[in-house]
Structures are given as structure tokens and as C-alpha cells.
Amino acid sequence: MFMAAVASCACSEAEDRAVKLPFLRAVRASAIATSLVLASSWVSAQEAAQLDTGAPVTNDQIFMMMFADQGRLVGFQSMIMAIQLETLKAQVDRDAAILARNLELFDRSAISELELEISQLKDAWNRLQMVVAEKNLTTVAAQVAALQLIGDHFAGKSVPLDDLYAAYLKGWNAGCDKGPAEVRANEAWMAYAEKALMRARELNSRGNLSDATVLQREADLRIARSNYENRASRLDRCREIFFPSIEEVARQGQ
């Protein structure tokens, strides 16, 4: 079941390396640059007047600091995502090689069916985590697009409300759309943890594995099961979060 999901969702390694990681770096740079552009437009306006830093804070001053902070946050998120994708790629490569080797060993009856199944489940779990990471990229890219439009507005360009709303809505929807992928990834993790515990108990009964390792496998399974159940039970809640309509946004300030 998990292997079929992987086959339908996973992208090629060549595409990942050629497109996704460079795009992540561009996203991070764009988020930081956009916040700086917006900040500079405010600063140049302030320089024309005498500054009174002791006066009560204004809405524009608050928004400037919040916007700069958001740009830094999005840039940090994209950096973490780049690290995560690199880590997942290394794990996919490693476990794909292990799986290929175990298939050969199983054909020669050198390993058990359980050992082969564990390597298959580990490979599937890694690839489903890649799907989640790629969907996270869509969310961050939408956030950056919205930041760029806001930067354009404060730089003096005309930005239609429906364009900015569409950018935000894409990010909101992308955040919800990754939910099912997260559930599938957690389900794959749980399936892998169950088989890994089964194998650990088998080896422990022969005196070939420590009790401490078995306890760790049991803890891994509890964590995996809890993550799966919690994420699955909250799958519909994302859609229940209030997203303002474009009409509600348009009425603001009128």
C-alpha cells in the first residue's frame, strides 16, 4: 500500500536536485530582500522629516517591524526546509541501496521476509516524508509571493487586492493540502516501527539484541502511533480555521 503511494507521489532525484533546492535558496533570498525593500521605502520617507522616537508608535511603524520579522521568519523556514530536503535525500539514497541489497539477499534466502519488509517500509516512509517536504515548499513559496506583492505596494507600484488575496489564499490552502500527505507519512512511520519492534523482540529472544534497544523500539512505536492518531484526528480542523473572504478584506478601511 505504501509503495503504491510512493510511486504515485515521489519526484525524481534529478528533478529534486536541479529544481527544488535552488528554488529554496531563491525563496530565502527573496524573502529577505523583500523585507529589506519595504523597510528602505519607509526609511527614506522618514528621513525627509524630523524623527521623534519618543512619540507614540504608529500603525505603519508596527507593521514595518512585523513585516521585517515575517520576512526573516520565512527566510529561516526556507533554510530549515533546505536542510531537511538534503537530509531526506541522503536517507532515501541510503535506504534505497539497502533495499536493493536486501532484495538480492532475500532472493538467495539469506535474510528473512521480515527483514526485507522492514527495509521496504523504511524506504516508503522516507519517500513519503519527501512528499510532505515538497508540499511545505509550496506553502513557503506562496508566503514569499505575498511578501513580494506587499513590498511592491510600498515601493509605489499598483497591486490589485485580488492578486494579493490570491497569493495569501494559495498559502492557506497549501498548508491544509499537506495534511493528508502528513497522515500517510505518519502511517508509514507507524508501520515501519511496528515491524522494527517485531524484529527487535525476535533478536532479543535469541540473545542478539539488548533489552535497552527493545525498549527504544517500543518507545519509537508509541511515538509513531501517537503522531499518526493525533494528525489523523485533526485532519479536518485546518479547513475550519477562519480564512477571511476577499469581500471581508475589501471592506477593511472603508
TrEMBL record:
Domain of life: Bacteria
Protein name, entry field: Uncharacterized protein
